[in-house]
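dumping this here so i dont lose it
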């Protein structure tokens, strides 16, 4: 009888190098896009040789897909956290504020995702079908139930979700433009107050 040896746990150095490569990939992809990024750029950013990088990831696409897969979980968590038993307007406003905060804290991740979608989601299409669509469908049903109960104003749930994404992620995806127009000031505090007012007025019955 033969037994399969258990997989070795990565060493601390291997774990550190893998994190460095993913961090470097995030920086390069968010700046250059997938097509403009190269393994040489990522290796240089990570402080590793290209052969060393290829020991951990066989291709540029492997790094990109790993980053996008990790990002999808982070990106969808606030939507999953909507409480069906909560007060509808406050639940949706909490979602707005969490999405805006994510744009502040994770601007590179937001641009990475936006670049992938603009290119037609060649690497993320299966995740959009398997993870994003069912969650959005479930959220739409929840919003429709709140509207039917008279606890929300009558709005189109899907366009509401799209509007929340557009108004919050804009601050990450177009931060250079915003920085010029706002003289480099940190606009997130004012943005939070404005979006709270905007969506509260829209959603209150």
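and the seq i came up w/
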């Amino acid at each position: 009888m033969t037994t399969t040896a258990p997989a070795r746990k990565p060493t601390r150095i291997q774990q550190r190098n893998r994190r460095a490569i993913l961090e470097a990939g995030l920086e390069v992809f968010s700046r250059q896009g997938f097509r403009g990024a190269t393994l040489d750029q990522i290796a240089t950013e990570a402080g590793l040789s290209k052969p060393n990088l290829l020991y951990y990831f066989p291709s540029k696409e492997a790094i990109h897909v790993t980053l996008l897969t990790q990002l999808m979980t982070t990106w969808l968590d606030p939507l999953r956290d909507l409480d069906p038993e909560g007060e509808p307007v406050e639940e949706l406003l909490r979602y707005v504020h969490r999405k805006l905060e994510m744009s502040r804290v994770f601007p590179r991740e937001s641009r990475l995702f936006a670049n992938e979608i603009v290119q037609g989601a060649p690497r993320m299409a299966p995740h959009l079908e398997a993870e994003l669509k069912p969650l959005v469908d479930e959220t739409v049903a929840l919003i429709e139930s709140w509207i039917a109960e008279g606890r929300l104003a009558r709005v189109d749930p899907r366009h509401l979700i799209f509007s929340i994404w557009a108004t919050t992620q804009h601050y990450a995806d177009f931060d250079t433009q915003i920085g010029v127009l706002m003289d480099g000031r940190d606009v997130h505090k004012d943005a939070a107050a404005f979006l709270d007012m905007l969506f509260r007025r829209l959603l209150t019955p």
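The mean pLDDT is 91.
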